[in-house]
Amino acid sequence: MARSGSIEGVLLGPIYLLGRRFVEFVAEFGRFGMMMGRVVSEVGDIFRRRDLFFRECVRLGTDSLPLVLVVGVFAGAVSGWQLSYQMEGYLPRDLLGPGVFKSIVLEMGPVLTGLVIAGRVAASIAAEIGTMRVTEQIDALESMAISSTRYLAVPRIAAMTIMMPILVVQANFIALMGAWFVTTMFLSFTTAQFWGLVPNFFHVYDIISGLLKSCFFGMSSAMIGCYVGFDASGGAEGVGTATIKAFVWSSIALLVLDYILAMILF
User: Among 17, 73, 125, 229, which is least packed by CB within 10 angstroms?
Assistant: First the structure.
């Protein structure tokens, strides 16, 4: 009997653990959905509290621009260099510019910018709100009948939804400039070779699709940062855990959204 019980425990243990993790995930997703509902119901208040919104636009968006530009210029340089190597002997050199343009506008610009924002913005939002949670500042807001969602979450989410496409436009431009500089300075391309066929492959839909994806990336990163911050507990250690959790979750959500939106848009 003892032997039978131990075998049963070995067999059912992983199933029990998997079921418990699944229940925890569903519960977590439900709490996240409830927070999203509160944000949607209170988003209209952003027009009455424009000062908070513009402050977050500057802090989360404009202050992220130097990092986004650094990532963009090197992403474009690497894209131009690698694509030149891959095309050599297979495709005409004049197709390098359109290839770099398409890859940056559709994927590299929005995705790399989104990952940078996930590392900087989502983590910082989670740390700020998590610190307020563990020091009971959020409880103090609620005791004064001030909605913590309206005061803390809505301005940050709205700001990132608006600022993310602006950052992506800047990243796309500097990435294309980086690719052009590298290919003309080090790979013996001419400016006419790089840019000559780009207008033939230019589609406004490509630009709109990349910017639309960036809106979802910015919104999801800010939402996850806010949710993880509100859910933080356990003092300074809990805030550190929330920061890491926000970065990991927002990065995974960005890649999943990128796949889903790519299937829908293309």
Answer: 17
Query: Would 127 be classed as within a structural domain?
Result: yes
Please identify which residue in the block is written with the tokens 């990092």.
67
Q: 72 in a domain, yes or no?
A: yes
Element (DSSP H or E) covering residue 146: none
Q: What's the predicted TM-score (pTM) here?
A: 0.86
Question: 3-state DSSP call for residue 125?
Answer: helix
25 assigned to some structural domain: no
24 lies in some domain: no
Interatomic CA distance for residues 36 and 23, integer angstroms: 20
pLDDT values of the chain reduced to their tens digit, one per residue, 266 residues: 445 556 655 656 777 788 888 888 888 888 888 888 888 888 877 777 788 889 999 998 889 999 999 999 999 999 999 888 888 878 788 888 899 999 999 998 999 999 998 888 899 999 999 999 888 888 888 888 788 888 888 999 999 999 999 999 999 999 999 999 999 998 888 899 889 888 888 889 999 999 999 999 999 999 999 999 998 888 888 888 889 999 999 999 999 999 999 999 88
Taken in order 219, 224, 225, 227, the sign of the CA dihedral is positive
Q: Which of 153, 130, 137 is nearest to 245 (CA)?
A: 130
Structural domain of 256: 49-265
Q: If you search the block for the tokens 């990991």, which residue do you land on?
A: 248
Cα within 13 Å of Cα(18), Cβ side: 5
Burial zone of 119 (CB within 10 Å; 0-12 exposed, 13-18 middle, 19+ buried): middle
